[in-house]
Design a protein that fits this description.
Chain A is α/β, with parallel strands linked by helices and 223 residues long. Helix content of chain A is 38%, strand content 26%. Chain A is built from six helices and six strands; from the N terminus they run H-H-E-H-H-E-E-E-H-H-E-E. Chain A has helices at 2-22, 46-65, 69-78, 80-87, 145-149, 161-180; strands at residues 67-68, 98-112, 117-126, 129-139, 192-201, 209-219. In chain A, strand 5 and strand 6 form a beta hairpin. The radius of gyration of chain A is 28 Å and the shape is globular. With 315 residues, chain B is of the alpha/beta class. Chain B has two domains: 26-130 and 266-294, Response regulator (Rossmann fold), CATH 3.40.50.2300; 133-263, Response regulator (Rossmann fold, 3-Layer(aba) Sandwich). Chain B has ten helices and 14 strands. Chain B is elongated and about 60 Å long. The chains are: A alpha/beta (223), B alpha/beta (315). At the A-B interface, helix 1 and helix 6 of A face helix 1, helix 3, helix 4, helix 5 and helix 6 of B.
Chain lengths: 223, 315
């Protein structure tokens, strides 16, 4: 009797309970409506953040960590990932570019201000020979090499990609202010200069583009 | 005594019958994959990538679409909770609207892994693998500016306004283009990510503004709609730039009909989310920060040949 009753009870109860366990009644009282979200969060001050870290963190970081650009370029041409591991920095994500804090002395080859993305072409020395590099002098500066070359700021520090981008732009804009006063002294090819800056690469680039954080005119070609 | 033993047996049997379906569900290890409509091949590729990776890791999958409707998404999250999913992989329907739905899942013990779009909250999803749309948009805009010769009239086609990425891409475009005073936007219209709407909008834009030299589009399906309207009007001189890296636009880039697009690594991103979910379920940690930004890649005639189904070959 008992052995017959138990499975029957279990089956009956199981048959009643199973559908309930497997099929929860869904309430829609927590419905939310689609709202257009503003891509620009209010109250985030990217320029203020950058001004706060520029002298305190960025300048000391470049002073201590910037690697000779010629050395970095030779290393990138051999193996970009190895160069990155040795001298660079990148975000914790697949496919992120490597960014490097760099420094170099060079000679001005040309000044290009026809495009609003103005540049200086500078010849530097590397162990493998002479190398032309491009320095962005604005007013339009492309990319976010400065932001991406420093280890003290990352995507984790902000709410979303707009704020992340605003910080990148704020670094670029601050850099333009830093180099503004020296640019008139770099008008003629042949002028000597020293600079600190950042480069960002994926693979071996055709042109090495530097976003300078400081430039010093060191003689010759002054107008 | 006898009665007590018997009732204890019944209780145990009852418990076993109750516990059985729960154990079975957990062993099934279901991954629920939710994306916008598969009409856009980008989202289809996300679902395909996530589903294939989940199956190869031994999970059952349930693939759902929310069609960019936050209340539908809320229902789908409820479905995932009811089905006792092991994890949710989601390309979400709104940076603010999604937060409450995912909190519900979290409270039910279901971890969420976001792909493509981010939400305006942290600590709700376990991972947010964000396609850096802003960075991608600046790449597209820089190429657009270059091909326009830094001057001329242009039109912008914007995506669905409720989608965060529509705004982010537009902002990325303008943060670059607006630095060139000789580039003038004559009109900015939403075509809701839709090819047919983009065709109709472009037709009327061309009638009202025959002088435009360029059209910058918030995604590839709208770029294809714009291209069809330009071809119908016999306009081969207009510079078109898209966003996503679809095979259709790749072919148009190779043929010189579209100047450029921007690849979001949709396939890999979806797979990566599943891998992080698997790791999290096994070890209680992804070993990565919650927010991970994945960069986009500019696609022009020079590298279009390497692009296939939202991935670069040889990478």
């Amino acid at each position: 009797m008992r052995s017959a009753l138990l499975p029957a009870l279990v089956m009956t109860l199981g048959a009643v309970l199973l559908p309930i366990a497997g099929c929860k009644i869904v309430h829609n009282d927590q419905r939310t409506s689609a709202t257009a979200s503003s891509p620009v969060p209010a109250g985030f001050d990217a320029a203020g953040y950058v001004d706060g870290v520029w002298d305190k963190e960025l300048v000391p970081y470049f002073d201590a960590k910037a690697v000779d650009l010629g050395k970095v370029i030779d290393a990138i041409k051999r193996d970009p990932d190895e160069a990155g591991r040795q001298y660079g920095h990148r975000a914790d994500a697949e496919g992120s570019p490597w960014s490097f804090p760099v420094r170099a002395k060079g000679k001005l080859v040309s000044v290009n201000t026809e495009s609003r993305a103005g540049t200086l072409v500078v010849e530097i020395a590397t162990a493998a020979g002479k190398q032309e590099v491009t320095l962005q002098i604005g007013p339009v500066v492309k990319g976010s090499a400065i932001r991406d070359s420093v280890p003290f700021f990352s995507f984790e520090n902000v709410t979303n990609q707009i704020e992340f981008a605003q910080v990148g732009r704020a670094f670029n804009e601050r850099a333009l202010k830093q180099i503004e006063s020296v640019l008139p002294k770099l008008a003629k090819p042949g002028a000597s200069l020293e600079f600190f800056g950042a480069i960002s690469i994926t693979g071996v680039p055709e042109t090495f583009v530097v976003t300078p954080v400081s430039i010093k005119a060191t003689g010759g070609g002054a107008s | 005594m006898k009665f007590t033993r018997r009732s204890a047996l019944i209780t145990m049997a009852l418990l076993a019958s109750l516990a059985a379906p729960m154990v079975a569900t957990a062993a099934d290890k279901l991954m629920v994959i939710i994306t916008p409509s598969h009409d856009n091949p980008f989202f289809k590729q996300e679902a395909v990538g996530a589903e294939a990776r989940a199956k190869s890791l031994g999970y059952k999958t349930l693939v759902l679409v929310h069609n960019d409707d936050a209340s539908k998404q809320n229902d789908l999250i409820d479905t995932a909770i009811a089905r006792k999913a092991a994890a949710i992989i989601l390309d979400n329907a709104g940076a603010d609207a999604t937060v409450a739905a995912l909190k519900k899942a979290k409270d039910a013990g279901i971890p969420s892994f976001l792909i493509d779009r981010e939400i305006n909250a942290t600590g709700v999803a376990v991972a947010q693998i964000v396609s850096n749309n802003y960075q991608g948009a600046t790449l597209g805009a820089e190429e657009f500016v270059k091909r326009m010769g830094e001057k001329g009239d242009y039109a912008e086609l914007v995506g669905k306004e409720s989608d965060t990425n529509a705004g982010i891409r537009s902002k990325g475009y303008h943060d670059v283009i607006d630095q060139y005073p000789a580039l003038k936007m004559v009109t900015r219209q939403s075509a809701n990510w839709s090819q047919t709407e983009a065709f109709a909008k472009t037709e009327s834009i061309l009638q009202a503004n025959p002088g435009i030299k360029g059209i910058i589009s918030g995604n590839d399906t709208m770029a294809m709609g714009a291209l069809a309207a330009l071809e119908a009007a016999g306009r081969k001189d207009v510079i078109v730039v898209g966003f996503d890296g679809s095979n259709d636009v790749r072919d148009a880039v190779k043929a010189g009909k579209i100047a450029a697009t921007v690849l979001q690594p949709a396939h890999r991103q979806a797979q990566y989310a599943v891998e992080l979910a698997d790791k999290y379920l096994k070890t209680k940690s992804t070993g990565k920060p919650e927010k991970i930004a994945m960069d986009c890649v500019l696609i022009t005639k020079a590298n279009a040949g390497q692009l296939e189904s939202f991935a670069m070959k040889g990478k």
